């Protein structure tokens, strides 16, 4: 619960009000048998019908019953309102906090973590935290207060009979403890399996074209079925535990009720207990099974919620971030000189992807990186963009260590055009202006420069055309040109192009190269490419092999 403490403290007023309301509800529940007990002892007594009734006293009893009901209803209303409102606010703030933290975590963390599992934590796990307050905690507090109140009242009325009614209490506590421990173990397993299930589903749905191309629908359905059956199995185990617990509680409380009834009648016959008090005893003893069962059930939910809280805390406690140095450099626009000095980098637990690389890219020049897949080209570009920090060595921008620069400033200086431009749900206009406050005029100018304006105008609603997920409906070349327009709009001094023309046909490549030529003018460019045509546009070509520079040459005209 430590992870929730800052969010709980903010809602202390609502939670305090809800707690007071819960106390009133428990008191009202305790008071319900008393009017009947008063009638039995003071109105009916030992009389036989017909007999006279004290109308005033009877009306007072009726008013008491009404007052108890009104107090309970009002307390229930405000308690539920405050608890649910607090739960919604806590859910909102916790969801925003975990999502913000995920945005800060390094690219390496996101590359090795299943997206489906992260989505489960941001949505379902966080929602369960809100329900913890709106449903579970209030019910547990009310059940605990009711059980404690019943015990105190019974001890006050008749300590001997009260102790008899509590004979099964130690066994109830032991059963509840074992039940909660087993439920928590299974809840943790359940959440892990739900994360795995979401990851498998997300993976398949994100690659549906590949699934259908290889006829893998049945295989993917089987994968989901297997994961779902594992999740179902744990769910059935929890249900079996719950049913077993409910049955055990019912038997124990029935035994306690039988003991109270038998010994209670004996004490009434001896004049040691009134008939009304016996009614209260039997009523409380029978009701005691309800708060005990409710408390145990909600305690099981609390146990499961704590397992979810552990998963949230695991993310919030992850400190794998690119450090944004306090007071880091954030001066004017960079000139664009890039220098790598004896740079070595290795992913966690793997061999070095780059080994002792030193090179300089003068401002305004173009450097092409070539080499086989896995040679280290994309890793080198990621270090320049500071998606990672080198294991050894230094990356400099205009002679300044990139680690000494503000991340916000650095992101403004360096733009990346990927092999397959990522587009978001929204309009074409929104995608071009992503991350900026560009005007419509600026957006159109950028699209013209990227050779994208003509095809955008032919879309159903032009720049206001809504794009589907990942830009569905656009060709690869069209998506690339929108990506180039988006980069042009930012006007960065340094451009990284990661295989920008791969998988394009000749006509699309011609159009993309037209936009790229405008994009690269006057900027420092790092080209990662297998295309000889694109490499020849560079001022210098460097070949990497197993993380080392093996050849440097000027392009052949």
3D structure, described in words:
This protein is of the alpha/beta class and 557 residues long. The chain folds into 2 domains: 2-45 and 53-316, ABC transporter transmembrane region fold, CATH 1.20.1560; 338-553, P-loop containing nucleotide triphosphate hydrolases (Rossmann fold). The chain has 19 helices and 12 strands. It has helices at 5-10, 12-31, 33-44, 55-104, 107-112, 115-157, 159-165, 169-206, 208-213, 217-269, 275-316, 377-384, 407-413, 428-432, 440-449, 453-457, 476-490, 506-520, 532-535, and strands spanning 338-346, 352-361, 366-370, 392-397, 400-401, 414-417, 426-427, 466-467, 494-498, 524-528, 540-545, 548-553. The strands form 3 sheets. A 6-stranded mixed sheet has the order 6-9-10-3-11-12, sandwiched between helices. Strands 2-1-4-5 form a 4-stranded antiparallel sheet, with helices on one face. Strands 7-8 form a two-stranded antiparallel ribbon. Helix 6 packs antiparallel against helix 11 and helix 10 (217-269) runs antiparallel to helix 11. The chain is elongated and about 115 Å long. It starts with a helix and ends with a strand.
């Amino acid at each position: 619960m430590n992870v929730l403490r800052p969010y709980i403290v903010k809602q202390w007023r609502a939670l305090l009000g809800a707690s007071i309301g819960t106390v009133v509800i428990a008191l009202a529940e305790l008071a319900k048998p008393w009017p009947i007990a008063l009638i039995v002892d003071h109105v009916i007594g030992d009389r036989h019908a017909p007999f006279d009734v004290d109308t005033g006293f009877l009306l007072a009893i009726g008013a008491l019953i009404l007052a108890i009901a009104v107090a309970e209803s009002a307390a229930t209303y405000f308690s539920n309102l405050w608890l649910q409102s607090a739960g919604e606010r806590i859910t909102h703030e916790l969801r925003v906090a975990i999502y913000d933290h995920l945005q800060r975590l390094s690219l390496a963390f996101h590359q090795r973590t299943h997206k489906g599992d992260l989505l489960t934590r941001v949505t379902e796990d966080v929602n369960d935290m809100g329900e913890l307050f709106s449903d579970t905690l209030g019910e547990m507090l009310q059940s605990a207060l009711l059980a404690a109140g019943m015990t105190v009242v019974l001890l006050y009325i008749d300590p001997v009979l009260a102790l008899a009614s509590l004979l099964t209490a130690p066994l109830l506590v032991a059963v509840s403890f074992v039940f909660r421990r087993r439920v928590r173990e299974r809840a943790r397993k359940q959440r892990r399996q739900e994360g795995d299930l979401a990851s498998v589903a997300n993976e398949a749905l994100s690659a549906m074209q590949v699934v259908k191309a290889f006829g893998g629908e049945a295989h993917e359905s089987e994968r989901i079925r297997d994961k779902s059956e594992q999740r179902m199995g744990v769910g059935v185990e929890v249900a079996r535990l719950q049913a077993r617990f409910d049955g055990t509680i019912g038997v124990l409380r029935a035994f306690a009720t039988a003991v109270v009834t038998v010994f209670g009648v004996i004490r009434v016959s001896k004049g040691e207990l009134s008939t009304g008090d016996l009614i209260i005893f039997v009523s409380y003893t029978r009701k005691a099974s309800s708060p005990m069962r409710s408390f145990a059930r909600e305690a099981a939910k609390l146990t499961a919620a704590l397992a979810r809280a552990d998963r949230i805390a695991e993310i919030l406690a992850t400190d794998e971030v690119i450090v944004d140095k306090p007071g880091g450099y954030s001066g004017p626009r960079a000139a664009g000189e890039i220098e790598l000095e004896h740079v070595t980098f290795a992913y966690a637990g793997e061999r070095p992807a780059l080994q002792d690389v030193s090179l300089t890219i003068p401002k305004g020049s173009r450097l092409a990186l070539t080499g086989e897949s896995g040679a280290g080209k994309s890793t080198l570009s990621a270090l320049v963009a500071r998606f990672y920090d080198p294991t050894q060595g230094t990356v400099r921008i205009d002679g300044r260590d990139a680690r000494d620069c503000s991340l916000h400033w650095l992101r403004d200086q360096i733009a990346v055009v990927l092999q397959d431009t990522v587009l978001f749900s929204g309009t074409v206009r929104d995608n071009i202006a992503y991350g900026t406050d560009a005007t419509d005029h600026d957006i159109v100018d950028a699209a013209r420069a990227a050779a994208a304006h003509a095809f955008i105008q032919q879309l159903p609603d032009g720049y206001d055309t809504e794009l589907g997920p990942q830009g569905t409906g656009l060709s690869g070349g069209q998506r690339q040109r929108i990506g180039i327009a988006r980069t042009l709009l930012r006007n960065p001094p340094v451009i990284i192009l990661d295989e920008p023309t791969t998988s394009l046909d000749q006509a699309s490549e011609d159009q993309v190269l037209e936009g790229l030529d405008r994009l690269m003018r006057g900027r420092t460019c790092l080209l990662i490419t297998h295309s000889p045509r694109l490499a020849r546009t560079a001022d210098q070509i460097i070949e990497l092999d197993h993380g080392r520079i093996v050849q440097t040459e000027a392009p052949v005209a």
